[in-house]
């Protein structure tokens, strides 16, 4: 048996479940609302930059992501040495865990939150401490503080929280970090920050020397999910450690070109984000109108807490040509897609009652 060569931890490791492809419903209706992707196609300028970069595909990309770091640093107003790039914000988290955690360390997370957290934590040899969400599907910050032990190395906060949607305010984050008081590194996963009305000012905290790391991505608001580019903002000492653990040449040549072109076209991209936010708010209001108890979402999705009915509900959406994301016996997540997709989602959701 070749399994003797494998790490024993893998036997109990949950597998990450990606969003399933869109089914085909009546009349050929087919919408994928399961992966929180931006529904808009790439801007022409971004496509042109990628095409130009592909002409050099026989060469390795810049391993240091020099131009990407320069453009991102200028956009955020941070120093170059405060940034570390990887294959999506989840990739950067994997590198951060490798750089900080050893066997037996504890990492506190809210649950339910991003499915990749327990996997990444266990692969680093650490132990995930999963603290249930509070009423309204929000992070129970007091309970997370109470879970800190001498073995706690890191606390991950997801804001807006995936898959439920609520966000943590700046004041609440500041109070939380002050109470942690350096006992653990606070990592703020901000993959959906561009969709939030009033996100915490994490960069301000990092510049002030607060032990906080921000994780961000170009997959969601910037529409580069297929290129998988994310980054961390941190104190230079943390950022250099993340860069040390990163896979060499992890960010491809066309992906780097797409990031730079997207930052140059940021106004048009963020105009699209504003439309998605407006559509999200309409979706939340409509779901509530038909009778669902939907938590406030500051991301590009809505959460239906359906409990044990989740599996059946996912199949109901699928039969109508809509693929949504189910989460065990907790609920399902609906990505904000095209207007007609959102309207159909409300119609299907109404039948669940």
TrEMBL record:
GO terms for molecular function: histidinol-phosphate transaminase activity; pyridoxal phosphate binding. The modification N6-(pyridoxal phosphate)lysine is found at residue 220. Signal peptide: none annotated. Pfam families: Aminotran_1_2. Its cofactor is pyridoxal 5'-phosphate. Homodimer. PANTHER family: HISTIDINOL-PHOSPHATE AMINOTRANSFERASE, HISTIDINOL-PHOSPHATE AMINOTRANSFERASE 2. This is Histidinol-phosphate aminotransferase. The gene is hisC.
